[in-house]
Design the sequence.
């Protein structure tokens, strides 16, 4: 290992960088690695990175059956979490959590009818629709996120799809955030192959596009686009060489079978998404699903069932980053801790997601200190496997 690599490794694991219980992990320790760098194998943390191995060698497969996934969900809870923790430890640095910050660059007025979303024009909320933000204002927000310790900046727009006239500003945002040394992520709705290509050429690291739920339940949640439309955009993103961030929402009143179908759809993609966000529905009054939950509180997702979903995602997609996404604000510290044990290794930071409240940096700093977690500096396993292909 080179002297520089050892320095990085030691720096990454020292308490000053957020490793100890008294540290302030969320605001310290932002490294300066380039967006596409991979982690360094580190004797002090015990995480064996290279030599690169293929996904298959690492036990990654796309042949999961629904029955196998249902059997995982059915395991006794502690057995399931134990297995997920084993898979997590074999493939990822332990006690490290990747931090991303979200910014809504174009809010509300969306023509889609996603039943969970307060940004849909069909939702009866008082959310104010805005135009696409100015590039400069977006870059200011990104700089602030970086100062707060975030390593990835995710920009979201309430669009069915971007218009070609929006693309120059979008490209400037990607280039500007990348130039700050942060990873970039965008979620702009459906993309044509040409648009995905342009984003890839601009250096976009990740594109978030969720399947949201099982193929069977999809039509109960969204009618203005199909499950296949989602898969087509994911293909265009992959084809353009951009990492895929794809997951969904639990707690929308779906059945266990839907959660099985949801994880199955992700884990049988020819190439697992590099990031898998698992959102718990944030029920917003005036949305179809928010109102439904307000009327039938028992439909709220059971927290143990939420942890089960995280654990099954971890086991079936061993190299992916599993992101504990929306819904953390109303989740107990103990449930979040169980999610980290069950293999979640990424979160959104800050006091806002796109339009709704998030846990906030102070609460997260306290949680990280309590649990001995630290911010991840590099996200390696998927990329190392890829490098070997
Ligand atoms: N318009 C783009 C799209 O739909 O792809 C990007 C933005 S959209 C807000 C991104 C994702 O956020 C959705 O696919 C959904 O999974 C999640 N999301 C939106 N509203 C949510 C809510 N109330 N609770 C939980 N997750 C939500
Ligand atoms: C994802 O799966 N969750 C994030 C991100 N991708 C873009 C968004 C959550 C949004 C929650 C509702 C809101 O704040 O508007
Ligand atoms: Fe529009 Fe995205 Fe909200 Fe659906 S989830 S209504 S596409 S902003």
Sequence:
């Amino acid at each position: 290992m080179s002297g520089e690599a050892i320095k990085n490794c030691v720096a990454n694991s020292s308490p000053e960088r957020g490793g100890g219980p008294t540290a302030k992990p969320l605001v310290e320790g932002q490294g300066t690695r380039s967006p596409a760098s991979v982690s360094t194998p580190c004797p002090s943390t015990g995480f064996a990175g290279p030599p690169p191995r293929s996904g298959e060698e690492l036990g990654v497969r796309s042949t999961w059956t629904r029955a196998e996934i249902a059997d995982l969900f059915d395991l006794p809870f502690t057995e399931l979490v134990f297995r997920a923790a084993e898979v997590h430890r074999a493939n990822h640095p332990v006690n490290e959590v990747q931090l991303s910050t979200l910014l809504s660059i174009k809010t509300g007025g969306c023509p889609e009818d996603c039943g969970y979303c307060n940004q849909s024009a069909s939702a009866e909320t008082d959310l104010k629709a805005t135009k696409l933000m100015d590039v400069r204002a977006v870059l200011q927000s990104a700089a602030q996120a970086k100062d707060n310790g975030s390593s990835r900046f995710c920009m979201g727009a309430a669009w069915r799809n971007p218009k070609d006239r929006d693309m120059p500003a979008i490209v400037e945002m990607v280039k500007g955030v990348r130039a700050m040394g942060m990873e970039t992520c965008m979620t702009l709705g459906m993309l044509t192959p040409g648009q995905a290509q342009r984003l890839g050429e601009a250096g976009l690291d990740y594109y978030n596009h969720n399947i949201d739920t099982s193929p069977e339940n999809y039509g109960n949640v969204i009618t203005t686009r199909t499950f296949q439309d989602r898969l087509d955009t994911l293909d265009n993103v992959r084809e353009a060489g951009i990492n895929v961030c794809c997951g969904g929402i639990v707690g929308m009143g779906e059945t266990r079978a839907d959660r099985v179908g949801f994880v199955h759809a992700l884990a049988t993609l020819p190439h697992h998404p590099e990031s898998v966000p698992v959102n718990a529905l944030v029920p917003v009054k005036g949305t179809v699903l928010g109102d439904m939950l307000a009327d039938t509180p028992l439909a709220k997702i059971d927290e143990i069932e939420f942890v089960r979903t995280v654990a099954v995602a971890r086991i079936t997609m061993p190299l992916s980053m599993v992101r504990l996404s929306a819904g953390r604000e109303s989740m107990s510290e103990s449930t979040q801790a169980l999610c980290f044990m069950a293999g979640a290794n990424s979160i959104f930071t800050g006091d806002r997601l796109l339009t709704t409240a998030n846990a906030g940096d102070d609460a997260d700093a306290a949680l990280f200190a309590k649990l001995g977690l630290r911010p991840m500096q590099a996200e390696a396993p998927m990329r190392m496997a890829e490098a070997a292909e």
Remarks:
- Residues 211 and 230 are 6 Å apart (CA to CA).
- The chain is about 40% helix and 10% strand.
- Strands lie at 96-106, 152-157, 183-187, 206-208, 243-245, 248-250, 275-280, 321-324, 346-349, 374-375.
